[in-house]
Amino acid sequence: MRHTVEVSQPQPAQPSPYVPVSPEVPFGTPPDPEPAMPWAKAILVTVVVFLVAGVVAGWAWQQFSPLAQYSVDENGGALGEEQMTRIFGPDGTFTAIGFVTALVLGGALFWWLRNYGPWSVGIVVLGACMGSGVAWGVGMLLGHDSLQPRLQAAKPGDLVSAPLELHTWTPVAAWLVGAALAAAVIAATTWRSEPVATTSQPAASNPSPPVH
């Protein structure tokens, strides 16, 4: 008598139609933020940018500020009605140049340093204050000439330009306002709520009553 034994061949595993989710990254978890650059590099770049901007802005302030003209006669120098309106020309020019410069550079630097959160605002604002001081110093160095010696050396009929100066310290704050405004606008337009991490929980099924 011969006995035959059937040997079953192993069946290949069927691929599952469901892709398992890696337990390391839960569903709904926001992506990791971009790594922030070192503090030293962020501060150094901000200082260099506003330092160069301050030098250029100071030169532009000296070059394009409308200055009042004193008319020289036997009694000294005098300003006409038309020239009186130009007394505060340097103040307006400094304000315009500073505000636009800080608005553009402050916005660009704030966007670049946005990973620092609120600290990026402080870095940009302090850099803008430094740029304002540098611009004022460069402009005064290039264009501020004392008025009295020039009036004494002038002859009757000559026109002597008023010295380049700020009559109030309010224009200096234009840099601060421009940088702060740029940071506020960018922060308001790019703000979004953090996504809430959620996990899908299977619905609990009611147990069936026992069958007696």
Secondary structure topology:
Layout: H1 39-64, E1 69-73, E2 76-78, H2 81-84, H3 89-112, H4 118-143, H5 147-153, E3 159-161, H6 173-190
Antiparallel strand pairs: 1-2, 1-3
Question: In what order do the strands lie side by side in the largest sheet?
Answer: 2-1-3
Q: Major β-sheet, in short?
A: 3 strands, antiparallel
Give the helix level as a range of percent: 40-55%
Number of domains as seen in the coordinates? 1
Oligomer: single chain
Give the helices and strands as they follow along the chain: HEEHHHHEH
Report the mean per-residue pLDDT as an integer: 79
Walkthrough of the structure:
With 212 residues, the chain is mainly alpha-helical. It has one domain (39-188). It contains 6 helices and 3 strands. Strand 1 and strand 2 (76-78) form a beta hairpin. The longest helix has 26 residues, at 39-64. The chain is elongated and about 65 Å long. It starts with 38 loop residues before the first helix and ends in a 22-residue tail after the last helix.
Output the keywords:
single chain; 212 residues; mainly alpha; three-stranded antiparallel beta sheet; 6 helices; 50% helix
In a nutshell, what does this entry contain?
The protein has helices at residues 39-64, 81-84, 89-112, 118-143, 147-153, 173-190, and strands spanning 69-73, 76-78, 159-161. By secondary structure, it is mostly helical.
